[in-house]
Structure formats: structure tokens, C-alpha cells
Design a protein that fits this description.
4 domains; four-stranded parallel β-sheet; 10 strands; globular; 16 helices; 428 residues; two-stranded parallel ribbon; Rossmann fold
């Protein structure tokens, strides 16, 4: 039984910003009081969402550590922006991005689709391997010995009561089941208990089973999650992240199960902004931009806010370039309203669903995750993230589009294949 139902989320998302701030601070206080100020950290990506979370946390607890994972995939502007914050721990993954996509696959479409396609292809490979073995005895011995490993590859649950499921018992007996859930979902045959086709089926992406490359959801796990998990194990600190339920179906499901503070989770995590939306984040920044900028600068080791100037703490000289001392990273550009000629006056009491309220948006990037991430690119209208990268970061663009044989990442070949076989129009 989950902690919430979907109507709870809708109700909380409809609240004005000032109410959300109070609720978020309450959850932050719960988390810090339970684990201690030295027992928590903010997972800080340098993006606008985590910047807002870090600002909220440090208003209450100024000494809380921020943790940034330097994957090598961030916009150069993001790395420079993070350097302007104090008390930030920098981590690095054990593998670089090229090693990850070579070993596991490309991050395209979505995490959910990539994971299901990856599991379905591994199922097909495992089944073919089992059928090709010449000696039945050898096949049974190997399958029984590594039943748990094959279960993980095929997407078969082996935890708790699932240990007695027909699928897992078949594996332990040396028999690979005819179909697995992830395979069924990809080909469109996965059914509910009443016999109806499940909403989780994705036959639209069946064509990926024949792709000359693989998709994988392992990139985030290896390059981002693993370093912070290792940090958490070594320090025993518990994370706070800026994940929002509105960002994906998976994050919505996580919030419904655990709420904002997952004290009872195997790996406890706090998402105190789960019920926020992107509009909330942009409004918070717009209303607090001057204070956010001054607070950060005054806490910085090398510079300080002096009147209307930013000066060096060592020399007292004026710092001419303040590009990276903005409230959010410069790669976002400015926050503007749409329509631009609207004279609506924003306050913390402004309601998202006010019919007269204009939308807030950024003039630059809307999201600043990994530069090379392909999740959601098939849904974008021109100019897409890749088209923008071509103009703003031509060096990085050339690298990812160059064929693998020539030392690049092969994105052009991958996108061309997806467009051709999946009837998509991903522009680059």
C-alpha cells in the first residue's frame, strides 16, 4: 500500500508557491532532524531544480554539504557555475561515457523504453544461447548455478514472494521461460490479470529489437548514481534530491509509494520538492534571483558582494565578468513570460492554474542534464537539443555525431537508423 493516491499529488501541485515552500521546508526539517545536519547532503547537478533545493536547504542549514558528480557530460557552463558554490564535494564515475555506451548501449527515447528493450534483447540472447548448447546437462548446470543472474538480465523479479513465482522456479530448474515481462511489453503481448492488454506495452518500439546498436538505461546508474551511492556508503549520509513527480511516470510512482521522505526505503532518500512543477521552480527563481545571487556570493571563498559590485576577497579588485554569478547557470539564458507582452504581476501566491497567468520559460536550454542524453529527443520540436548544441557547443556536437570508427560516439548513425525504421523525425 502506497502513502498517497494520484489525487493527493494533483491537489498539492495546485497549491500556490508560498504553500509549497512551507511544505518543502517542513520535509527538509524532518529529514535533517532525523539524520542530523552532518548526516545529510544535497545531490547537486548545477541545474535549476537542484539550485532551488540547495537554496532552500541552506537558508535553514548553511553547513549542509552539496555533492556534484562530474561525469564529463555536463555543459561547460554548468561546471563553472558549480565552482561558484561553497562546500561542494566533487565526485567522478569509474567509467567514461564512451565506455558505457560501448558496453551497455545508448540512452535514447526514455529510461523505461531503454530498460525494456535492453531486457527483451538479453532475453532473446539468453534463449538462443540455451537452445544452441549441445549438451542438456551442461545447460541445466549453468542455468541453475546462475539462475539469479539470468533473472536480473531478463527482468524477472526474484525478491520476497517472487522467489516462488513460476518464472523464477523455471529458471532454477534449468528452464528459461518462453517469455518474460519486459519482452512481452516490448512486443505488445503483456496482459493484465483480466486478460486485457497492459498499458505498459510498447509495441511501437518493437523495431529496436533488430537495431544494430543497443539501448540501455544503465548510463545514469553507472555515471551518476553509483558515485553518490559510494559516497553515501562511505560517509553514511542520506541524500536530498530535487526530483519532481511531474517529470516522469516512474517518479510519480515513486512518490505515490514513498512520499517525499522515504525513511522506510532500503536506501533512504528525500525528495522534498516532489509536488513542485517546472513553473514553480521558474517562479521561485524569478522572485528570489537577487537574494540567491547575493547569498551565494557572500558565502564564496574567493569573491564577495560589495554594494553593486562583485570583488575579489584577496585584492579587492572588481570582478568584471559576473556570468557565472547568476542565480542559475547562464546556459538557461533568461526567464521570460509567454506571451511576452503580458503585464501579469507574479507573487508567491500566484496559482499555476490561474487562466490569466502567463507561462514562464527560459530563453536558453530548458533542461541541463547530460549534454549527450537522448531521452525524450523524439518528442522535441525544432530547434531540438542537438540543433541547439550544433550552434552553442560545436566541438561537443562534432564529437557525438562523428562515427565510432573515427573516434566519435556515432550519434548520427543511431539517429538516422531510428528515423528510418521507427518512422520518427529526430532533427539534429
Amino acid at each position: 500500500m502506497g502513502k498517497h493516491v494520484i489525487s493527493d499529488l494533483w491537489q498539492m501541485q495546485s497549491l500556490p508557491l508560498e504553500a509549497k515552500i512551507r511544505m518543502t521546508k517542513y520535509r527538509i526539517r524532518q529529514w535533517v532532524e532525523y539524520y542530523g545536519e552532518d548526516g545529510v547532503y544535497v545531490s547537486f547537478s548545477g541545474g535549476k531544480d537542484s539550485t532551488v533545493l540547495l537554496d532552500l536547504v541552506r537558508q535553514m542549514y548553511s553547513n549542509v554539504t552539496a555533492v556534484f558528480v562530474d561525469t564529463g557530460l555536463e555543459y561547460p557552463e554548468i561546471r563553472e557555475f558549480v565552482k561558484t558554490f561553497s562546500n561542494v564535494v566533487w565526485l567522478k564515475p569509474k567509467k567514461n561515457f564512451k565506455q558505457v555506451i560501448t558496453e551497455y548501449g545508448y540512452p535514447f527515447i526514455s529510461k523505461e523504453v531503454s530498460d525494456k528493450v535492453d531486457g527483451a534483447r538479453k532475453y532473446m540472447q539468453a534463449l538462443n544461447d540455451a537452445q544452441s548448447r549441445e549438451r542438456e546437462r551442461e545447460r541445466e548446470s549453468r542455468t541453475v548455478r546462475y539462475a539469479w543472474g539470468i533473472a536480473d538480465l531478463l527482468g524477472i523479479d526474484r525478491r520476497g514472494e517472487a522467489k516462488e513465482s513460476p518464472e523464477y522456479l523455471s529458471l532454477k530448474m534449468g528452464i528459461i521461460p518462453s517469455e518474460t515481462s519486459r519482452y512481452q511489453q516490448v512486443v505488445g503481448t503483456y496482459k493484465n490479470k483480466d486478460g486485457s492488454v497492459s498499458k505498459y506495452c510498447m509495441p511501437r518500439y518493437k523495431f529496436f529489437l533488430e537495431a544494430p546498436f543497443n539501448l540501455s538505461a544503465s548510463c545514469c546508474r553507472i555515471m551518476k548514481k553509483s558515485p553518490v551511492h559510494s559516497y553515501g556508503r562511505k560517509t553514511h549520509k542520506k541524500p536530498m534530491t530535487a526530483q519532481m513527480a511531474s517529470e516522469s511516470r516512474l517518479r510519480t510512482a515513486q512518490w505515490l509509494r514513498n512520499g517525499c521522505n522515504g525513511f522506510e526505503m532500503t536506501s533512504p532518500i528525500s525528495n522534498p520538492m516532489s509536488f513542485w512543477t517546472e513553473q514553480d521552480v521558474l517562479l521561485y527563481i524569478e522572485l528570489n534571483k537577487d537574494r540567491m545571487c547575493r547569498d551565494r556570493i557572500n558565502c564564496h571563498e574567493k569573491v564577495m558582494w560589495y554594494g553593486s559590485r562583485i570583488v575579489s576577497r584577496e585584492t579587492g579588485a572588481t570582478i568584471e565578468s559576473i556570468e557565472y554569478y547568476r542565480p542559475i547557470c547562464s546556459v538557461y539564458g533568461d526567464i521570460v513570460t509567454e506571451p511576452s507582452d503580458c503585464d501579469y504581476e507574479f507573487t508567491e501566491r500566484s496559482e499555476i492554474f490561474d487562466k490569466d497567468r502567463p507561462l514562464l520559460k527560459t530563453t536558453g536550454c530548458s533542461r541541463t542534464g547530460c549534454m549527450f542524453c537522448g531521452y525524450g529527443c523524439h518528442l522535441e520540436k525544432s530547434p531540438t537539443r542537438f540543433e541547439q548544441m550544433k550552434e552553442t557547443h560545436p566541438k561537443q556536437y562534432a564529437y557525438i555525431m562523428k562515427p565510432v570508427e573515427e573516434g566519435g560516439l556515432g550519434y548520427k548513425d543511431v539517429i538516422d537508423w531510428i528515423n528510418q525504421h521507427g518512422n520518427m523525425d529526430i532533427k539534429y
